[in-house]
Every structure is written in structure tokens, then in C-alpha cells.
Specification:
Helix content is 36%, strand content 7%. The protein is mostly helical.
Length: 600
């Protein structure tokens, strides 16, 4: 039974209708594999991220018509709750304690599912809140001491996260057979472990000695954890998978008549493929499960920034800054002789929409920067609020390759063989010039974008960050990457004077796609020309002086007036919910720099 089908079964003939709720107990349930499956299927829906929560995460590389709370400085201790996630955690612990009636082999397989989700729950909580009270058992209303205990150190909790990943790996099957890409596997456990360990390892490296982590090295249960310890855990977990999978290279959709576009196509697949995809969320009309990435991207005008576009190398493998006049390249020039992933991620002058045969003129109803995101954008049937049925990859092989390369570089141990087995595979998929060897020369632009990067292989670290930014764009990583690298200030538009887009040397009409017809007008507020070319749509007549401005370096700019300044002393963590602090009588301490008005 597929995961999605099982959700439907629960609502009709599932365990909740098998007996009255008052009679649902370990003695009458958890006896068959079907019952274990039905119970654990709920974890997939409640714990795994949704497509929109990941794809729509705004940062410095990608913005929309609304800033996030972290970008505006509006996170509050009163605006967050732990209720939902701790309810799920209790369900996980309950399952692990009570499923004793089924045979051991079946029970252990589904225990692997539960261990995976407990690890994922705590990883998500730690990266938001830091220290967290850790519970690996069901608590009752009389367990007052446990319910009101102080927070456990993040290093201890993350050590437990990795232990659960190991337990999941030991118990989960390599393949469930049918619908394997929608079910947890050994590789999913490795992927989560590499992701979580890399986050903690780099967070500790770049925040040790601060109010967030006074000391890097700590001892818990006889284990000495540190940034190095976590980075080695990340590299070792990823290494177990390297070489066992392949990247998607299909061209079945024929999105471009002139060339294959496997990177773009991968994110438009109705059914997730099984090699690059380690775990996906399934969406389908027949299951009545859909999402709305395409609708939201259009209506909130999700847009990429020039800062993001600058990450793409020239086709010859050199930084764009090595090209004379790169600062003043037009929209069309940005796409010439660049890493092919640029035109497979951002709408270029030759863009052809899925299901169409002619190039599409840039719509200013869909962008605020001139750089419209086309990743995840399928044909027009996906345009409605809940009509998109493309599957969503939660874990994919490309990320694991990048996790390995980054961990090794942060350790100062990246080799040419490592580069060939990771970064070069990603580039080969799209026909891009390979990295070839461990980078030794620092690109000044990357150093400017990531001033806190450090280590004996700093050049390699910067190049891997470039690769990660390009490959994993709009997949829910960027915000967390900047936080763990100690580069949080770039989340706020005030750090760069607003989010900048295409080059606009002067006001007037422009033929962006170079098809011989003007397609956009930029004019000063209150001074719109009396005559505008008929080829320019009304929505492409952009008034400069309101929300849109032109920056000092002649970039179309948005949020230039946004003035929140990043606060290093508190902004790297969310505040602990005030209601949780009150419920524990203050035993839960507040995070650095946050004032919730409580006296304890």
C-alpha cells in the first residue's frame, strides 16, 4: 500500500474505526503489520516538510512580496508554540513503547520509521531553538519533574539525533519494493544523518565562543562531541551512499527543443524517479493530494536576486567576476555562456514553458527583480491554488554529495577524488565544466559574500558554498545555511541596500529577450511617458520611486526602505515560547537577547 493511499485508508477503514477510541489500546492494537503501517504513516504527513514550506523559503537569494518574520525582526516569544510538534513526538515515543504485540521482524522495521522521525523532529527543533528538553519516553500528567525540567544542551540532543539515525539505519529496509521513493529507507536515514550532523558541525565551528555556544567541545555519556566530531559523522554517513546512486539525466519532457535540460525536468516529474530521489512526498489527482507551488510563486511574485545569479560560474568554470564589464551585463547577457543550471532555474530570454513550443516573454506579474524562478514550474494545469501534482523530493542524492564535500572541506581533508565523486557529478549532469581539483584560489566575490568562512581549505569551502547555493536553490536550505555559517545578516535586505535584480542603466523601454520588441518600461513616479510601445504589457510598465527603486549601482531594487538590522546577539535562534516557560515555572531558560517579559 502506498503512503498516500494509506492516508486515505485511515480515514475510511483505518484503526480509528476498528474500535471505539476508548477501547484503542496496546492490547487491542499494534498486532499486525497493517496496523503498524497505518499508525506510522501519520508521521510522514506531520513531520516531513511540505513543498511550499521549502520552495517558498525566502532569504538573500530569493524573495517575494512578503518578508519573513526573521527578515523583519518580528519573531516574538508569544508567537510560537511547541504543542503540535510535541504531540507528534509523544505519538512516536508511544509507538516505540507499546508495539510489543507484533512479531519482532515487523516491529523492528517500523521502529526504524519511528526512530527516523524522532531524529527529524529534534533536529528541526534544535536548529530553531538550540538547547531543547529531550524526551525519549512517554510522559504522564504526574511526571512533573520531567515535564518541567530545564533544557538539555544542544550537543547532547544532537548526539541523540544521530543515535536515532543509526537505529533507523539498522532497522529500515534498503527498499520496500513498490513506492520505494515514498517510504523511508536505509539511505533516508543516512541522508538525514549527514544533513543534521553537517548543520551541527558547522554551527559549532562558526558559533563556538559566542552566547549561543560558549564552548565547542563537550562530553555527554562518555562521548566527546565537537564541531569536528559532528563533521566526521556527516562525512561518514554520506560516504556510505556515495557511488551507490546516480543523478537524474532524463529528457523525456523535451522542455527545450535545442538541448536536454535534466536539472529543470527533475523538479517537474509527476512521479519521483528512484535513483536520485531518496525520499519524496507524493502528489496525485487520483489521491486528491495536491500542492500549490506554482500558484504561490506567481501570486507572491517569487524572484531571484542578483546576489544569487552572481553565484553561477561562466561556462568555462571561471567566476563571472573574471568577465570584463560583468557588473553592467544586461538581462540577456547574464545567461550567455553560463553554467546551464542558470537557465534551468531562472527564466532566460529563450525560455519555453512546459507544454509550449514558443518562447515566453517575461511576465512582470511573476517577478519583482526581473529574475523569475522557473524551478518547480510545470505547465498551465498546475497554475491553480491546489492543482499541482508534481512529486516533491525531501531528500535527494545531490544534497548528500554536497554534504560530503562540505564536511570534508570544513575538516580540511577534501581531496581531488572527493571533488570528482561529488561536485563534478553535479556539473556533468548539465554539461558544465568540472571543478577537477581541490580549489586553491579564492574568488574575491565569494569571500565578500561569505566573510566568515575559515579553515585550511577556505577556497574549497567557498566554492562548495557556491555549488550548494546553485544546486539546492529554493529547496528550503538557504536560510538554514546562512544561520549555521554565521552569515545571518544577509537574510535582511538592509545588509545589501535592498534585494537587487536586473541591471537598468537608465529609465526607458527595454527589449530584455532581444526579440526586436520592447517588453518592459521603467519610468519615474509621476512621469509616465504619454506614449508606450504597444508590445509592452500594462503590467510591464514599472514605476520607479515607490516599492521599486533603482540602486546606486543601477540595479532594479525592492525593499530598499526595509531597515531592520540583523542582531548577532539574538537572531541566530528563535525565542523560547513564553507559554512553555510559564508552564515550567521558568525552568526553561530564554535564548540570548530575547525578552519575554517574564520575571524568571
Amino acid at each position: 500500500m502506498s503512503i498516500a493511499a494509506a492516508f486515505c485508508a485511515v480515514s475510511c477503514d483505518g484503526f480509528l474505526t476498528k474500535l471505539p477510541e476508548t477501547q484503542l489500546s496496546p492490547e487491542t492494537f499494534f498486532r499486525t503489520e497493517n496496523e503498524l503501517e497505518l499508525f506510522t504513516n501519520g508521521f510522514y504527513a506531520s513531520v516531513l516538510p511540505s513543498p511550499t514550506s521549502c520552495a517558498e523559503q525566502v532569504a538573500d537569494d530569493h524573495f517575494s512580496s512578503s518578508l519573513s518574520a526573521i527578515q523583519k525582526g518580528t519573531r516574538l516569544p508569544s508567537s510560537k508554540s511547541w504543542a503540535g510538534i510535541f504531540d507528534t513526538l509523544r505519538d512516536v515515543n508511544y509507538f516505540l513503547e507499546k508495539n510489543v504485540n507484533c512479531d519482532e521482524a515487523t516491529r523492528e522495521k517500523y521502529n526504524g520509521v519511528a526512530y527516523f522521525f524522532r531524529a527529524m523532529i529534534y533536529f528541526e527543533m534544535v536548529r530553531q531553538f538550540g538547547d531543547m528538553p529531550y524526551y525519549d519516553k512517554v510522559l504522564g500528567s504526574t511526571d512533573t519533574k520531567e515535564l518541567t525540567k530545564p533544557r538539555d544542551p544542544r550537543g547532547y540532543v544532537m548526539m541523540k539525533v544521530l543515535e536515532d539515525c543509526d537505529r533507523a539505519y539498522e532497522r529500515l529496509p534498503e527498499d520496500w519494493g513498490s513506492d520505494s521513493q515514498y517510504r523511508l529507507s536505509k539511505d533516508a536515514a543516512l541522508a538525514l544523518k549527514s544533513r543534521a550532523a553537517l548543520f551541527e558541525g558547522t554551527f559549532r565551528k562558526y558559533h563556538a565562543g559566542t552566547e549561543y555556544l560558549p564552548v565547542d567541545e563537550q562530553v555527554f555519556d562518555g562521548v566527546t562531541v565537537s564541531s569536528e566530531w559532528f563533521l566526521r559523522q556527516a562525512a561518514d554517513a554520506a560516504a556510505l551512499m556515495i557511488g551507490s546512486r546516480s543523478l537524474y539525466s532524463g529528457n523525456e519532457m523535451k522542455l527545450d527543443p535545442k538541448k536536454a535540460t535534466p536539472y529543470r525536468e527533475y523538479f517537474l516529474l509527476e512521479d519521483a524517479e528512484k535513483n536520485e530521489t531518496i525520499l519524496a512526498r507524493r502528489y496525485a489527482v487520483e489521491l486528491a493530494i495536491r500542492h500549490g507551488i506554482q500558484f504561490d510563486y506567481k501570486n507572491a511574485r517569487h524572484s531571484a536576486t542578483q546576489r544569487f545569479v552572481d553565484h553561477y560560474l561562466l561556462a568555462n568554470g571561471k567566476p563571472v567576476s573574471s568577465k570584463t564589464g560583468y557588473q553592467n551585463m544586461s538581462y540577456a547577457e547574464q545567461f550567455k555562456d553560463r553554467d546551464p543550471r542558470l537557465a534551468q532555474t531562472i527564466q532566460g530570454p529563450d525560455y519555453i514553458a512546459a507544454g509550449e513550443s514558443e518562447h515566453e516573454v517575461l511576465s512582470w506579474e511573476r517577478t519583482l527583480s526581473g529574475y523569475r524562478i522557473i524551478k518547480f514550474i510545470s505547465d498551465s494545469s498546475h497554475e491553480g491554488a491546489t492543482t499541482s501534482t508534481t512529486d516533491y523530493p525531501v531528500f535527494r542524492y545531490a544534497e548528500v554529495l554536497l554534504n560530503y564535500a562540505e564536511a570534508k572541506a570544513e575538516l580540511g581533508e577534501l581531496t581531488k577524488a572527493d571533488v570528482n565523486a561529488t561536485i563534478d557529478l553535479l556539473r556533468a549532469r548539465v554539461g558544465m565544466t568540472k571543478m577537477g581539483d581541490v580549489p586553491a584560489d579564492i574568488d574575491p566575490m565569494m569571500e565578500e559574500y561569505y566573510p566568515n568562512a575559515k579553515g585550511s581549505q577556505k577556497a574549497a569551502i567557498l566554492e562548495i558554498r557556491r555549488e550548494r547555493t546553485v544546486e539546492l536553490f529554493s529547496e528550503g536550505f538557504r536560510q538554514w545555511d546562512l544561520l549555521r555559517w554565521g552569515e545571518g545578516k544577509w537574510l535582511c535586505p538592509s545588509a545589501t541596500g535592498g534585494f537587487k535584480g536586473i541591471y537598468v542603466p537608465a529609465l526607458g523601454e527595454y527589449d530584455l529577450d532581444a526579440d526586436g520588441r520592447p517588453d518592459v518600461l521603467f519610468y519615474k513616479k509621476g512621469s509616465k511617458p504619454s506614449s508606450v510601445s504597444s508590445s509592452i504589457a500594462a503590467t510591464a510598465q514599472i514605476e520607479i520611486g515607490g516599492n521599486f527603486t533603482i540602486s546606486a549601482d543601477n540595479r532594479l531594487c525592492f525593499y530598499e526602505a526595509e531597515n531592520y538590522q540583523w542582531n548577532d546577539a539574538c537572531d541566530y535562534l528563535w525565542p523560547i515560547p513564553a507559554d512553555q516557560r510559564t508552564a515550567t515555572g521558568g525552568n526553561l531558560s530564554q535564548n540570548p537577547g530575547w525578552d519575554d517579559g517574564l520575571s524568571f
